[in-house]
Amino acid sequence: PHEVKPVKATSDRLNYSGKTILAPMVRVGTLPMRLLALEFGADIVYSEELIDWKLLRSFRRVNDVLGTIDFVDETDGTIVFRTCARERNNVVLQIGTSDPERALKVGKIVENDVAGIDINMGCPKEFSVKGGMGVALMADLEKAKSVLHTLASGVSCPVTCKVRVLPDVEATVEVCKALAETGIAAIGVHGRTRDERPQHGNRNHYIRAVAEALSIPVIANGGSKEILCFEDIEKFRTDTGCSSVMVARAAEWNVSIFRKEGLLPLDDVIKKYLTLSVDYDNNGSNSKYCVQNMLRELQETPRGKVFLEAQTLEQICAVWDLADYCRKRQLEFKAAGLLGRREICP
Ligand code: FNR
Predict the structure, then answer these.
(1) At 84, phi and psi to the nearest 5?
(2) Residue 208 and residue 264: Cα distance in Å, rounded?
(3) Are the C-beta atoms of 299 and 305 separated by less than 8 Å?
(4) ipTM of the complex
């Protein structure tokens, strides 16, 4: 029913082998965090998971004031997905879906603004599973294959998926093989089952078995518990026998984990993060959430408590001496015609 465009020359297409990747994380993987991960050395950055129908009810808008492309929810005007030229060749949009045709419609909307599209097949949350999305797709292999095949043959950018392992290693390899035959460019494998939680060990040998059986790149995931510095990312790569690795929590806590030269002090990372939040007019409550996840127990310190009281991006910036910068940029944006937004952070 849909027109199948010729795929782009392979040389322009994102290559997933030998890469270090920012994993998809809801609320964490918005534009400022993705840009900072790239600055620190990540090769590919995944967006947070966006549910297909949210993207389907959004429209694309070129934002000349910020230099971004925005997908705006037509019902309430919120930004569903914001991206920019800097990440055009590195950003992978992750979709939550349970339906091939909806996935394809989303793919056609975003294919020219992103480097790749990923399907979430690992999320164990009730919201996803009830809707037939996330890890539910692994229990419905025909549906999963149909989503991937429809998308991979219908969009011009590469398509991938991110899965969890099954309790049995052979079954895991078989499912991944079947998914790999749909035309996807790579597969991300989180080494925990749908019932395992972050405190459980990661089944690195399951990931290794998948990597040995598949000819497409396998992206190892789930190693953050043992990732305290850049070298640990390399160790995880070796332990899983994968050429690419994807890091979530270790990057959520301190995204300078991607620096070959070593971690930066948290205050430096937060300042850079807030500067990018200001430059891209990020939603204040989203920036607050991300900084909270960086501070963790430091929220209990006197400065942490001041931060927790902050209600606007400017007030958050004030804690790191960036209030003047924030005010100045927001005034510039307003003068250039960007609608002022006075939002209150929870
Ligand atoms: C996640 N994870 C996740 N996975 C996914 O496919 N789509 C998503 O939107 C999210 N969202 C998300 C938010 C937050 C705050 C966390 C901590 C995690 C799972 C994540 O990508 C990864 O699979 C796991 O965290 C395991 O990898 P690490 O953390 O050990 O590197």
Answers:
(1) -150, 170
(2) 31
(3) yes
(4) 0.99
Q: Ligand 1 atom closest to Cα of 249?
A: 29
Distance CA 82, CA 322 (A): 23
Q: Is 199 helix (H, G, I), strand (E, B) or coil?
A: coil
3-state secondary structure at position 228: coil
Residue 191 has pLDDT above 70, yes or no: yes
- Contact status, residue 277 vs residue 250, Cβ threshold 8 Å: no
Q: What is the mean pLDDT of residues 143-162?
A: 98
Task: Report how far ligand 1's centroid is from the alpha carbon of 111 (Å).
Answer: 23
CA 273 to ligand 1 centroid distance, Å: 20
Q: Is the CB of 136 under 6 A from ligand 1?
A: no
Does residue 123 carry a catalytic annotation? Answer: yes
* pLDDT confidence of residue 346: 66
Distance, CA 249 to ligand 1 centroid (Å)? Answer: 7
Q: Whose CA is nearest to atom 18 of ligand 1?
A: 25
Higher per-residue confidence, 234 vs 341: 234
| Ligand 1, atom 20, residue with closest C-alpha | 248
Among 5-14, 41-50, 137-146, 175-184, the minimum mean pLDDT is found in: 5-14
H helix intervals, the chain:
31-40, 52-56, 100-110, 126-130, 141-154, 169-180, 204-213, 230-240, 249-253, 266-279, 284-295, 302-309, 313-319, 323-335
pLDDT score of 165 more than 50: yes
